[in-house]
Amino acid sequence: MKTNDLIIQTTTKVVFFIIFLFSIHIFFAGHYTPGGGFVGGLLMSSAIVLLLLAFDLKTVQEMLPINYTILTAIGLLISLATAAGSIFFNVPFFTHVYDYFYIPLLGETSIHTAMFFDTGVYLVVVGVTMTIIQMIGGDE
Amino acid sequence: MINLLLFPVLIPFLFAAISLFFPKKVKAQRITAITGLLLALVSAIILLVKVKTDGVQALTLGSWAPPFGITMVSDMLSVLLVTSSILISLFVVWYSFSSIGEEREKAFYYPAILFMLTGVNGAFTTGDIFNMFVFFEVLLMSSYVLIVLGGEKVQLRESIKYILVNVISSSLFVITVGYLYSVVGTLNMADISIKLADIGQTGIVTVIAVLFLIVFGIKGGIFPLFFWLPGSYAAPPVPVLALFGALLTKVGVYAIIRTYTLFFTTDVGYTHELLMIISIITIIAGCIGALAYFDLKQIIIYNIVIAVGVILFGVSTMNESGLMGSVFYLIHDILIKGALFLLIGIIIKITGTSNLRKMGGLIKHYPILGWSYLIAAFGLAGIPPLSGFVGKLLIVQGGLEGEYLWQSIFILASSLVVLLSAIRIFIYAFWGEEKGSHDISPKLYRHLMAPTVTLVAITVLYGVGSEFLVPFMTDATSVLLDPSVYTDAVFEGVK
């Protein structure tokens, strides 16, 4: 039976971007306020799960043609590369550095290498969560 | 290169992450796995030389001062274990090429092995008790994947048991670390050692020591906590079984050795006597199991339990010969169990069964297999020039020096049982009239024999070259006997 889910689909189209932006906000705010890569990644996956609820699996895979296993691997490599960068400077592994950079529109901003590590965490969390949900949901 | 001691942990991790990109390309998977393992082996050997010449290596991650950051410590014991675990993984991967089957290879088999090796090496190298928990989880989760991969009925049943037991023991680990943290207020193992030496062995510290024994005992398979081990280890295919049998229980044993020589040393009366009693009962239980079965896999699996008991007995004596014997025997057992599981894997492949009664007369067509099995069996039992001899000799010597006469007799008697159980496989499978079908192509047989025979040759070299290894073992033992060597290396330049 085909149900009419016009309301949920229309709402999702708006709410998806709000959740997505909130996840990005939480991710960048993690250094000074509660948040970070893990929560940000979970929020991002919850936004995709909302898409999965409103549309079916096939449509969502067409909207976001991402192989989540590869996404997980990329995340792992980014985190490892950030931590391993210290090897080339002969300082202990995981040594982070930060500096201030001038970025157009944003102005003077401090960039900390911990952010790149968190990017890896973010991608791994999204990748793993979505792999689990797609694997379980895809068995039809 | 101050980060050298991390390379055996990082290289398998890097190559595991890379091989996630192309799960369906079997050839590329194999090349990635073997390259990663070879590079890791080279780095481990360089590290071994470094530790031998410069003493204990310690590094606190993130440039923090020692008790505040995560410290990684590579002393002789840990670097020897790291080297031998990489070596075993290398042979198991080589053996897997022709035995595991393409279906499993396409389902993230090699990444799982590499991630497991990351966890094992990390657990051997870490100097932080909570970090050790994390590395335990890394290796356990990869082992969950390996035990269930393939999805046969028996694998599904046994993996539920295995996961359930390990989840419970892991939560107990967290609780125990919580207790320890509330007593000493630190997680750095060197710092815990110093703080515990200051406050002495109060009642709560003894309770924590026993809790650690329970936690690592479940992982390592001591009596009465090994109940999950025989069933779970028999479920996965032989290369995975070899990896599990050689490495996983040894991580638990290493953790017991580390905590009982570094943390709980001020009052050894209760804790180490308990360890001794348990290790003797473990040996007896393992002997009963090894004699009771007519199943190839079960006989060798119960031999793991016996070996765990023998190693822990050496630790519980807390004297130089006993500890040195334990280190010798630990490395020997990693190598020989790997070799034996690979050998019985070939026997099972030839006869198509693991039931001893249904096979016979293999020596006529497979003489090399037969004689290498006999050498491995003698090595397992500890016949003189072979690998098990020196370790057990030193353990018994340590037992007699500590005036534990009866316990030492048990160790010697257990060798007879081990020999009997292993020789029974030889007699039933290789002697007598030819029985059962022999359906194995000569090419497959050669491909399976190459890594196995090389590994058996390495165990023989380990036994024959014991004299050459003594300086390494002495270094390992001196750190175990004197925790201040360990703590000084960690706090070097701070205090």
TrEMBL record, chain A:
Residues 7-131 form the Na+/H+ antiporter MnhB subunit-related protein domain. It is found in: Cell membrane. Keywords: Cell membrane, Membrane, Transmembrane, Transmembrane helix. It comes from the Bacteria. It is a multi-pass membrane protein. GO terms for cellular component: plasma membrane. This is Multisubunit sodium/proton antiporter MrpB subunit.
TrEMBL record, chain B:
Signal peptide: none annotated. It is found in: Cell membrane; Membrane. One of its GO terms (biological process) is ATP synthesis coupled electron transport. Coiled coil: none annotated. GO terms for cellular component: plasma membrane. The chain crosses the membrane at residues 6-23, 30-49, 69-95, 107-124, 130-150, 162-184, 204-228, 240-262, 274-294, 299-315, 327-348, 368-389, 409-432, 444-464. It comes from the Bacteria. Residues 127-414 form the NADH:quinone oxidoreductase/Mrp antiporter transmembrane domain. InterPro entries: CPA3_Na-H_Antiporter_D (IPR050586), NADH_UbQ_OxRdtase (IPR003918), ND/Mrp_TM (IPR001750). It is a multi-pass membrane protein. Keywords: Antiport, Cell membrane, Membrane, Transmembrane, Transmembrane helix, Transport. Pfam families: Proton_antipo_M (PF00361). GO terms for molecular function: antiporter activity; NADH dehydrogenase (ubiquinone) activity. PANTHER family: NA(+)_H(+) ANTIPORTER SUBUNIT D1, NADH DEHYDROGENASE. Belongs to the CPA3 antiporters (TC 2.A.63) subunit D family. This is Multisubunit sodium/proton antiporter MrpD subunit. The lineage of its organism: Bacteria, Bacillati, Bacillota, Bacilli, Bacillales.
